[in-house]
């Protein structure tokens, strides 16, 4: 049975769903893993589409449920490792050099961030794998800070397995309504993005106010 011949509520013949369906149809579980590896490297590719679609394919017998979970989790880890190594290549010294050239930031801010990551890095990597947007980004500071690779790989595997299992099983159980998962996770993604934007705006405003106070004081 081929995935593209299934009676989906809206035929995934184009867009992200169509692309993911083609991969699973052509390669089975490894195709789903490849799609998720690319999703980690290019966050605009939505896991909330790829994973439920993979779960639906498992429910229709295109691939086994065990295969869906194994390959999507492996793909998550591979994608995260690539970003981890990018963080390692950038390195702490180069990161400080780039940071020093940015406006409205201080070296002390980066120092505090590094200290926070040293204290909470394990929790950040594990939980970050289950938070939209940050799923990919959290791997880079882990590489910059050179978190021990076995620890990073283990935490990434566990966090990814939780996230992937939830979305794959949602698609598996929802059947031909698998695409409803995107709606709910999409709302969560927008809430997270809005919170990040608000935090950045508040940070910038506070920086400008601090500069104004120092300017008037002098």
Automatic annotation (TrEMBL):
Signal sequence region: none
This protein's UniProt keywords: Cell membrane, Membrane, Transmembrane, Transmembrane helix
Domain VTT: 45-172
GO-annotated cellular components: plasma membrane
Family matches, as Pfam families: VTT_dom (PF09335)
Entry protein name: DedA family protein
Membrane topology category: Multi-pass membrane protein
Transmembrane segments: 62-86, 151-175, 187-206
InterPro entries found in the cross-reference section: DedA_domain, VTT_dom
PANTHER family: ALKALINE PHOSPHATASE LIKE PROTEIN, UNDECAPRENYL PHOSPHATE TRANSPORTER A
Record family assignment: Belongs to the DedA family.
Domain of life of the native organism: Bacteria
Cellular compartments annotated: Cell membrane
């Amino acid at each position: 049975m081929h995935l593209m011949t299934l009676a989906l509520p809206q035929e995934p013949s184009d867009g992200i769903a169509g692309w993911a369906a083609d991969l699973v149809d052509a390669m089975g579980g490894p195709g789903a893993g490849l799609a998720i590896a690319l999703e980690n490297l290019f966050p605009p590719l939505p896991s909330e589409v790829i994973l439920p679609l993979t779960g639906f394919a498992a429910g229709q017998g295109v691939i086994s449920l065990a295969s869906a979970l194994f390959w999507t989790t492996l793909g998550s880890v591979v994608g995260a490792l690539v970003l981890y190594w990018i963080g390692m290549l950038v390195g702490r010294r180069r990161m400080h050099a780039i940071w020093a050239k940015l406006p409205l930031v201080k070296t002390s801010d980066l120092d505090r961030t590094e200290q926070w990551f040293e204290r909470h890095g394990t929790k950040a990597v594990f939980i970050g794998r289950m938070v939209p947007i940050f799923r990919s980004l959290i791997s880079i500071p882990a590489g910059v800070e050179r978190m021990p690779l076995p620890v990073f790989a283990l935490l990434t595997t566990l966090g990814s397995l939780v996230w992937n299992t939830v979305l794959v099983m949602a698609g598996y159980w929802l059947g031909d309504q698998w695409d409803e998962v995107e709606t709910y996770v999409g709302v969560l993604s927008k809430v997270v993005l809005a919170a990040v934007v608000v935090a950045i705006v508040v940070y910038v405003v506070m920086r400008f106010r601090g500069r104004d106070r120092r300017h008037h004081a002098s």
